Each structure stands twice: as C-alpha cells, then as structure tokens.
C-alpha cells in the first residue's frame, strides 16, 4: 500500500511538471518573434523546440529518470530568465484582464486620474 501511495504521488508530480512545461511552451508560442531578438535571447523556434521536447519527455518518461530533470531545467530557465526579459521588452504582459498594462496605480482606463 505504501508503494502505491508513492507511485500515485509521483504520478501527480509528473502531471504537474507536464502542465508546467506545457504552460511554458504556450507562453513561448504566443510571444512575438522579434521580442526574443530584442531581449538578446535565443530565437523563438529554439525555445519552442526545447520546451516541446521537455513537455513530451516529462509525459513519456518517469520523473525518476534523467531526461525529465533536463527538461525541467530547461523549463525553469525559460520561466525565470527568458520570460521576464520578453515581458520587459514587450512592455508587460500586454494588458488584459489580469495582466495589467504596466501603468501607474493612479491610471484609469483613459489615462491618469490626477492631472
């Protein structure tokens, strides 16, 4: 019974890492191609290939093996290094409901409240 619990926890961790890699892949796919060049990072195709392979490896192989660990490292590098640089070059997350447009706290929908 203890072994079943251990493998069910590993299964949950494996799914969580796969979702994390999938998030990074989708995020890399929606970023503009020229933002990678402006942020002085590798190009968009490179990151899509690396993150796509990482997601597939995390789904197909056990979390205990070596390949998912390499995939996790690639996803972490993208998330903590490349993604913030792309957001800074692009001017934030582009607005929207949750992202904020990078404006001041006194900005209203049509400009600043205090003029």
UniProtKB/TrEMBL annotation:
Signal peptide bounds: none
Coiled coil: none
Transmembrane segments: 6-25, 45-78
Region (Disordered): 88-115
Bias-annotated ranges (Gly residues): 91-105
Pfam families recorded: DUF2516
Xref: InterPro entries: DUF2516
Keywords: Membrane, Transmembrane, Transmembrane helix
Listed name of the protein: DUF2516 family protein
Species assigned in the record: Actinacidiphila oryziradicis
Lineage: Bacteria, Bacillati, Actinomycetota, Actinomycetes, Kitasatosporales
């Amino acid at each position: 019974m203890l072994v079943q619990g251990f493998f069910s926890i590993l299964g949950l961790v494996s799914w969580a890492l796969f979702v994390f890699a999938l998030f990074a892949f989708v995020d890399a796919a929606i970023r503009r191609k020229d933002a990678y060049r402006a942020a002085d990072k590798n190009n968009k195709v490179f990151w899509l290939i690396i993150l796509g392979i990482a997601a597939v490896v995390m789904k197909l192989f056990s979390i205990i093996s070596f390949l998912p660990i390499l995939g996790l490292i690639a996803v972490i590098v993208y998330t903590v290094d490349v993604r913030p640089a792309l957001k800074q070059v692009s001017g934030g997350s582009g607005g929207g409901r949750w992202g904020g447009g990078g404006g001041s706290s006194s900005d209203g929908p049509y400009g600043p409240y205090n003029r």
